[in-house]
């Protein structure tokens, strides 16, 4: 009994754990709303109404709208990482890893993990011409995502799977643009074939460069 009491978490730790769980639940709902309505339209009042909570209660977790926006982006980043980046096989390298990465990314869009499609595509168009901490955080993550594509392309070049004269940034740009177009068509036209078209276009581009058929 004494040992159990000694190992039990303190009231402060329990309160902290509850606070973190509540914050995560708030951010999950906020990210879903923001993907549909926009990050700028998601005020603390709007979020409080959606959650059935008081504005003052939300202010206890987020002191300002900017802090809320940055926290939402961080939550979306964690979801994206789990749904896309962490789905790669640890042993995969080069072209195989690039194929898996593209497939996981398009699958994340197709499954509509966020109600409004890809969170980062939706929010990037909202803030791409608006300087400030939100735009900076978005640009940092999108740069990280493009960097992942470029790294896999360079690995494929080092393994002799892709020609050495390909510019990784250019190919990464092309792949990303195809995904953006598919997300746009899926959201605007509710086009169920949009992701198929993107997969086909990426597969054909990689096959052309590699000199053989590639299945994504």
- Tally the structural domains: 1
* Rg (C-alpha, Å): 21 Å
Helical run tally: 10
Order of helices and strands: HHHHHHHHHH
Helix percentage range: over 70%
Shape: globular
CATH architectural designation: Orthogonal Bundle
Coarse structural class: mainly alpha
The CATH topology is Tetracycline Repressor, domain 2
Mean pLDDT across every amino acid position = 89
Topology:
Blueprint: H1 2-7, H2 11-37, H3 44-51, H4 55-59, H5 65-83, H6 94-110, H7 119-127, H8 133-158, H9 168-189, H10 194-210
Helix pairs in contact: 2-5, 2-7, 5-8, 6-8, 6-9, 6-10, 7-8, 8-9, 9-10
Structure notes:
By secondary structure, this protein is an all-alpha fold. It has helices at residues 2-7, 11-37, 44-51, 55-59, 65-83, 94-110, 119-127, 133-158, 168-189, 194-210. Helix 2 (11-37) packs across helix 5 (65-83), helix 7 (119-127) packs across helix 8 (133-158) and helix 8 (133-158) packs across helix 9 (168-189). The termini are far apart.
Characteristic terms for this protein:
216 residues; Tetracycline Repressor, domain 2; 0% strand; Homeodomain-like_sf; TetR/AcrR family transcriptional regulator; transcription; mainly alpha
Concise synopsis of the structure shown:
By secondary structure, this protein is an all-alpha fold. It has helices at 2-7, 11-37, 44-51, 55-59, 65-83, 94-110, 119-127, 133-158, 168-189, 194-210.
């Amino acid at each position: 009994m004494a040992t159990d009491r000694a190992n039990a978490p303190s009231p402060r730790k329990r309160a902290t754990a509850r606070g973190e769980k509540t914050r995560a639940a708030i951010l999950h709902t906020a990210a879903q709303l923001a993907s549909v309505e926009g990050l700028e339209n998601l005020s603390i009042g709007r979020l409080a109404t959606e959650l059935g909570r008081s504005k003052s209660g939300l202010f206890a977790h987020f002191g300002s709208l900017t802090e809320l926006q940055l926290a939402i982006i961080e939550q979306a980043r964690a979801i994206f990482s789990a749904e896309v980046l962490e789905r790669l096989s640890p042993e995969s390298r080069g072209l195989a890893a690039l194929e898996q990465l593209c497939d996981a990314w398009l699958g994340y869009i197709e499954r509509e993990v966020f109600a409004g499609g890809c969170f980062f595509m939706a929010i990037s168009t909202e803030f791409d011409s608006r300087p400030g901490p939100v735009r900076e955080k978005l640009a940092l993550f999108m740069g990280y995502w493009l960097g992942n594509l470029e790294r896999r392309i360079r690995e494929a070049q080092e393994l002799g799977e892709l020609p050495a004269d390909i510019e990784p940034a250019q190919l990464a740009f092309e792949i990303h643009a195809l995904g953006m177009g598919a997300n746009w068509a899926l959201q605007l036209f509710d086009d169920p074939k949009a992701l198929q078209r993107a997969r086909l276009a990426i597969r054909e581009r990689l096959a052309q460069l590699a000199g053989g058929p590639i299945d994504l």
